[in-house]
Amino acid sequence: MKTVTLNDVSRAAGVSRSTASLVLRGSPKIPETTAERVRLAMTELGYVYNRHAANMRRSESMTLGLIVTDIRNPYFAGLTMTIEEAAHTAGYTLLVGYSRDDVERQSLQLETMVQQQVDGILLLPATGSELNAVCGIIDRSSVPVLQVARYFSEELDYVGPDNIAAGQQLARHVSSLGAASAVLIGGPERSSARTERIEGLETGFTGSGVVFDSSLSAAATTNNAAGGSEGVARVLDQGIWPDCIIAYSDAVAIGIYAELRRRNLEPGRDISVASFDDIAMAELLLPPLTSVSTYPELIGHQAAELLLNRIRDPSLRPQRSLVEPALKIRASTAQWRPRT
Amino acid sequence: MKTVTLNDVSRAAGVSRSTASLVLRGSPKIPETTAERVRLAMTELGYVYNRHAANMRRSESMTLGLIVTDIRNPYFAGLTMTIEEAAHTAGYTLLVGYSRDDVERQSLQLETMVQQQVDGILLLPATGSELNAVCGIIDRSSVPVLQVARYFSEELDYVGPDNIAAGQQLARHVSSLGAASAVLIGGPERSSARTERIEGLETGFTGSGVVFDSSLSAAATTNNAAGGSEGVARVLDQGIWPDCIIAYSDAVAIGIYAELRRRNLEPGRDISVASFDDIAMAELLLPPLTSVSTYPELIGHQAAELLLNRIRDPSLRPQRSLVEPALKIRASTAQWRPRT
DNA sequence: GATTTCCATTAGATCGGTCTACCAAAGGTC
DNA sequence: GACCTTTGGTAGACCGATCTAATGGAAATC
Fold first, then answer.
1. Three-state secondary structure string covering chain B
2. Same domain for B313 and B288
3. Do residues A68 and A139 both lie within one domain?
4. What nucleotide is nearest B54 when CA is compared to C1'?
5. Which residue intervals define the domain HTH lacI-type in the entry (chains A, B) (predicted)?
6. Is the whole model's pTM more than 0.90, yes or no?
7. What is the pLDDT of residues B142-152, one digit of tens each?
């Protein structure tokens, strides 16, 4: 079965290929009578527009690339879906890759996307991304790259939560409960997001009397439930029993709940737990989890907008956009009281 | 900044464009000395391969399309990630769309993907998909489409769990507990997966004495936590108090837990809860959730394999591949005993 | 009536690769 | 020396759109 091209259509409609092309794009130069005739020929022959051919000539592709680490974390899933939605409404298709937080894999995916002529890339950088690792590919092609949720370079656009504010909000809440000590558990050790959250927590705790330690479980923990369990185990096995455990993310907090219970400790009663992200699950857990909402939908939407702007005008200076977080207080901390 | 083409490279290396092209594809006809010279010119000029141009000539695109309903359901997230992985290792890039279980949106995404010249499409059909809604686009382009996890047509390939077996396993387990009544809650009403699960449950319950009702909450419930809460509310508000609630999926079960507790009923003690999918969360819930694992990784992997086979040989007859499920018994049903 | 403007339409180059068909020179065979 | 084969390489058509510059004819202007 031969594919139907614009040539076939134009021949059937008795016009030139150029005319058919103009009809396709709804040019006002073609009178309705002719246009109708061409459109009829299209449906009759079962014509399918070949975007690749068009894009080749126009040297754009109407596709965006999106690389995220892992969508089994609902936070990233929500982010991804919003970005897809924004891209689609702007007429773009989305090429996705999951780096699984592996720089090597991420490089390959960047390379592929560039070869596929994407018009822009949204990158949620794998931990350990550095400019020179990513740069070569980006430089060679001059594709605009926007960093989402984490960043490693000041020279590229960035959209993410205001992690410092988020940390501060959480710290103030925890100290207002009267806790004496808190630890941070989980999260990708060298990511900007983690560093900023720690910074926020530290400044938020200053002068409050709460002893805060972010170093207890940092190494080798990951941004999922397993990382949470492992982190709790490591802390408690050191004989440390903080008043409040702060999880790097809700995904981590879920593992923290599980590990606490394995040790017959009830979250929210024996140890408070609080977290970042506020995924839908947070509210449905028992006890409901106190979490700082970082609004992935907003971030995704803004990221897509900003990238599309840059595609239109590549000369813009690098931009940073921070989304304001909001603390959601729930039973996992609200019921806290000093041990007797 | 002008883009560097094969022409530029060949000129710099003092060979013809044809030779450069052959080097690119590692042809054995070109001796290593020449190849090296060409490769040097490539890196020196910062050449980036233009896949679109190549694909245009070869009339393939090395991209696959994937349309799923919603990846905030971890089951679909896992499925999606496996498919991406399989596609990437086979050298394909993935174009994704999230239908949000909306047929209209799904049609648009199919259309776009076909225009983008994808070599094949993996479709997790939105509920209400019918052949004629999808067919037009598919027919016109003759792109191979494979159905994942749900199906609506016997003429297209299908890979999914053996839902009937899954239902039977669950039914037998529930009846072995001595339950007298069970209801099914949640799930997309007209999907093949739900119909099959009900069929499996019904045959599994036959002769066991367990009264099973799947009609109580069917209408208008969805495949997520909200659907679960709503479903439980509707059932209990009718004055029905089953011994066991069977959730369409783990995502639904999470909402069921929440709604039961809102009514001061403890899942696994006052009412047993069991479910399908066995996402990672199932084990971490309190009480851990009995669920039939349907192995999204296996399904995703097989789906990608099968689609790639069909792309290689489009003349194959439509294939069906069912993945065997496995029941994971946990505390949400294990602790069940008759009310006194 | 001559010239200009406008309208509808088109021929042909172009995007950046791949592929077919062909060629020139070197080496081998009788 | 004539003929065949192998090696290394190339010219130019081609994929299916878009876009520029041009054209023929009708209407409008002087």
1. CCCCCHHHHHHHHCCCHHHHHHHHCCCCCCCHHHHHHHHHHHHHHCCCCCHHHHHHHHCCCCEEEEEECCCCCHHHHHHHHHHHHHHHHCCCEEEEEECCCCHHHHHHHHHHHHHCCCCEEEECCCCCCCHHHHHHHHHHHCCCEEEECCCCCCCCEEEEECHHHHHHHHHHHHHHCCCCEEEEECCCCCCHHHHHHHHHHHHHHCCCCCEEECCCCCCCCCCCHHHHHHHHHHHHHCCCCCCEEEECCHHHHHHHHHHHHHCCCCECCCEEEEEEECCHHHHHCCCCCEEEECCHHHHHHHHHHHHHHHHHCCCCCCCEEEECCEEECCHHHHCCCCCC
2. no
3. yes
4. C17
5. 4-58
6. yes
7. 899 999 999 99
